[in-house]
Amino acid sequence: MKKLRVTIEGKAYEVLVEILDPGTTPVPTPMPAAAPAASVTSAAVSSAPFAAAPKAAPATAASGTVVSPLAGKIVSIDVKVGQTVDEGAQVATIEAMKMNTYIYAPKGGRVDAVMVNAGDAVEEGTALLRLA
Description:
The protein has 1 helix and 10 strands. By secondary structure, it is mainly beta. It has 2 domains: 2-22 and 31-47, no CATH class; 65-131, CATH 2.40.50.100. A hairpin with a 2-residue loop joins strand 6 (90-96) and strand 7. The N and C termini lie far apart (61 Å).
């Protein structure tokens, strides 16, 4: 094990690193000429950011379908079919990683259909209910 200090965005972290193959010596990677003269760790982190995969826009306001913003378990559906809701009204609650997330109506309208029940496990983007 080797103890190292890593600096990310100005904050230092001490980490333990396990050397898996002690017989080989790591080969240093040359840094690009444009890299600042900072520590190798922070230069490597800032010069290679992770690119998030583009997500499709949820089908909410235009179609009236309210979708789950994340994967989790439905705690409650707070509306009934035929009920009229205002824009921004709470329509459901979902639990993910022991935290509740409230889901709100993207537009006002009448609840046309409810596609899930309390206790159902859903994935991100799953249609929960439809507003007419």
